[in-house]
Amino acid sequence: MTLCEATATRIEELLQEKKMKLYHLEKKSGILHGTMACIMKRKNKDITLSKIMMIAKGFDMSFMEFLDAPIFRSEELEFEY
Fold first, then answer.
1. Cα–Cα distance, 5 to 45 (Å, whole number)
2. Which domains are seen in the chain, by residue range?
3. What per-residue confidence (pLDDT) applies to 75?
4. Which of 20, 32, 36, 64 has a CA positioned 20 to 30 A from the CA of residue 47?
């Protein structure tokens, strides 16, 4: 699993947990709909630190809270260079 795929999966988990719509996350995070759609469809080849920080902000959590999930600790996590 790539970092981008893990990020999309984490977003899906948090949306469900917080009973939140993707549209609301886009508005709170400041991420444009097209960009978020690419992330969620796993079409995004790379994701920046600033985008992850914006997503965390949209969930009213710190960057570290967003990344503190088993999916990001997986030995299988691939990083694209």
1. 9
2. 3-71 (1.10.260.40)
3. 79
4. 20
